[in-house]
Amino acid sequence: MTKLLHLLKLDKILLGLFIAINVIFVYKYGSRQNFINYNIIILGYLSLLLVITYFYKKEFFKLSNKAINAIFVSISFITILLYVGINIAIDKNTLNVDRWAALEISIEAITKGIYPYTRVDFAGNMSSNFPALAYIALPFYLIGDVGFLQVFSFIVFSTFLFRYTKKKEVALYILLLFVSSPAILWEVFAKSDLHSNLILVSAFIIWWQNKTNNNPFTKPVILGIIIAFLLLTRGVLVIPLTIFLFKPFVFEPLSNQLKFIFSFAISIIIICIPTALTAPDIDTIINYNPLVLQTNKTLSVLYIFLFLPFILSFTIKGLSSLFGYSGLIVLAITTITFIYTIFISGFSATIHEHLYDISYLSMAIPFILMHIALKSYIIKGK
């Protein structure tokens, strides 16, 4: 499969999927207003992408690294101010989307000792956030708005993009794709946390690979603690982390394997205990927990995709491939559910009657952009 996708130019396939995801967002939310026909908005977005790509192909290479760096930093700074302004301007209580509310329910398990997974938010939904995500969002909750987590995530994304992309014109290109993405902008307006931990795990993988000189198990105890924490932010992160770590884990000495497993297991328990202690009884924990709440509507056939990361761990040759295939698997899982819902209920009802949350399609975006940015970054020893 990897050879076939290589022949078909994986980066072009992923870029096409990135555009398709954003067009779906423009169609859904553009059709809700009557000022401009949504087809014109879609055409405008595609035209913007063409302009960005033209400058990337024809003009960026003419600029010095110093000029590109100045443009990159300026756009990043303006975007940070824009994201902060959006979060200040938008009253979370006026939003129909309940991502922020579900996250606040999870945080209140820490701050108020209330079990989060039996509570219902204003939209009638239960929180299914894993407990570690609440710890990441806690500082932003304490300063008044969990939406600022998106600002922090963008700072991490732009910093790592600037630091680890060898060709600065590529970094600028990816930054422009990110800030012009309707799907990304929706996340900011909705005060959503969906992309935050995807960005953070991508940053960790890049940083850890560099810190350990392409040998991730040089510090198995610390690695076990970090992996436990990251997996307890969102279950889908098992995909990139398995691709990243499974092969080197298999070839590690038994002592390192045991150190990793022990620290991982202990860390899982420590992170989960504060939330578990707020539950009224064990039956509540068994019936109402993130795994149950996140998988009770998942098509059984989709679990087949969870075997792919173990295979891909032995076949990928770089961080770029790691993120590329992670994005493909995540998008395959969400797209199959999307298509199934369309088949059962029809396209219009699926899109306009909220039968499927299209924001799940955008979970692949951070991985897609990291893939394109790091095409020349090779994992040694893989």
Structure description:
There is one protein chain. With 382 residues, the chain is an all-alpha fold. It has one domain (2-373). 68% of the residues lie in helices and 0% in strands. The protein contains 19 helices and no strands. The chain has helices spanning 2-7, 10-30, 38-59, 65-89, 99-111, 131-142, 148-164, 168-179, 182-189, 196-211, 220-231, 238-250, 254-276, 282-287, 290-295, 308-312, 319-345, 347-352, 365-373. The two termini are 17 Å apart. 39% of the residues are buried. The model is unreliable at 377-382 (pLDDT under 50).
Total helix count? 19
Rg to the nearest angstrom? 21 Å
User: Which of globular, elongated, flat, extended, rod-shaped describes the shape?
Assistant: globular
Total number of beta strands: 0
Largest sheet entry:
none
Give the uncertain stretches in residue-range form.
377-382
Please state roughly what percent of the residues sit in beta strands, choosing from under 5%, 5-15%, 15-25%, 25-35%, 35-45% or over 45%. under 5%
Task: Kindly name the structural category.
Answer: mainly alpha
How are helices and strands ordered from N to C?
A: HHHHHHHHHHHHHHHHHHH
- Number of separate structural domains: 1
- Binned, the helix content reads 55-70%
Mean residue pLDDT:
88
Distance between the termini: 17 Å
